[in-house]
Amino acid sequence: MANHFKSGLLLAAMTSLFLFLGFLLGGQSGMFIALIIAGVMNVGSYWYSHKIVLSMYKAQPLERHQARELFDMVERLAGQAGLPLPEVYLIPEDAPNAFATGRNPSHAVVAVTRGLMQMMNREELEGVIAHELGHIKNRDILISTIAATLSGAIMWVASMARFSAIFGGSDDEEGGLGIVGVIVMSILAPMAAMLVQMAVSRSREYLADATAAGITGNPGGLASALSKLGAYSRRGQVDANPSTAHMFIVTPLTGQRMMSLFSTHPPIEDRVARLAGSRPSAPSDGPGRTSGGRDAGRSTMEEQGRSFWDNMS
């Protein structure tokens, strides 16, 4: 319940930010226009986002005779979760990963990569499928779609605001804050929207992990799968669009270690530790020694970042 409440607050904050940016751009009229735009974009993404995402990754629908064991597994786990049977799609990628999409449990899709099918044993694959069903059960598809849409809209309006400030300024008579206020907010608003979107995504990943453990009754299967996925991600991942990276079970994007603080996904070791009912241990250089110097400072900074995101979750 706390996770749902915090996600709702974060989405409300993002909506408020979008409306405020509209207010800066055009006063009360701008705020009203921003509200209409947000509504139209969310309705459109609700109905069509799953088709766009599936086509983006060239995912193909699977029939039962093509993957009977996978279909039987999805059907059994969906029944245990109290969900209708979702459609099953295969992504022609060797990198192991998976995501769920669709506008509601009755129109849901679970998509897995070819690499995931080849790498995971039965218990691990069950854990991954249950995780995606957890997103469906928790209505994360709708939440993440709204968050992504609002984030994109905020960035678009921020660009409009900068253009307006440079070539004419804002409407001070209707309550705008003038050129300086518009420029400052047009820079800060997209950054704030990105942080809120990441907080929403991270909180939903933790919740989907817990839901998956409840569905299968075997948190070790998902924990083992996450460990394998984390190890593989150091070698390469799905060629993904950053706007859809939050949908995958592990981030398909690669980058510097410090970027983990600003990822749409929690650190895999934290997720595995939660499934095991413990906290992740501190990094070590060997028996009886912990990392020192610059590595220790970097580790401390990462731990502070994780603690911040845990509180947001």
Protein model, in words:
With 313 residues, this protein is an alpha+beta fold. The protein has helices at 2-56, 68-81, 114-119, 122-137, 140-166, 178-216, 219-233, 268-276, 293-312; strands spanning 60-61, 87-91, 98-102, 108-113, 284-286, 289-290. The protein has a single domain, classed as Metalloproteases ("zincins"), catalytic domain (Zincin-like, 2-Layer Sandwich), CATH 3.30.2010.10. Helix content is 64%, strand content 7%. The chain has a four-stranded mixed sheet, sandwiched between helices. A two-stranded antiparallel ribbon has the order 5-6. Strand 5 and strand 6 (289-290) form a beta hairpin. The relative contact order is 0.13. Residues 170-176, 256-261 and 281-302 have low confidence and may be disordered.
- Large-scale geometry: elongated
Q: Give the CATH architecture.
A: 2-Layer Sandwich
* Radius of gyration, CA atoms, in whole angstroms: 21 Å
**Going by CATH, what is the homologous superfamily?**
Metalloproteases ("zincins"), catalytic domain
Multimerization state = single chain
- List the helices and strands in order: HEHEEEHHHHHHEEH
User: In whole angstroms, how far apart are the ends?
Assistant: 11 Å
Low confidence ranges: 170-176, 256-261, 281-302
Strand content: 5-15%
Structural class: alpha+beta
The counted number of beta strands is: 6
The number of helical elements comes to 9
The overall pLDDT, averaged over residues, is: 77
Using the coordinates above, name the CATH class: Alpha Beta
CATH-assigned fold name: Zincin-like
Largest sheet report: 4 strands, mixed
The number of domains is 1
Order of strands in the sheet with the most strands? 1-2-4-3
**Share of helical residues:** 55-70%
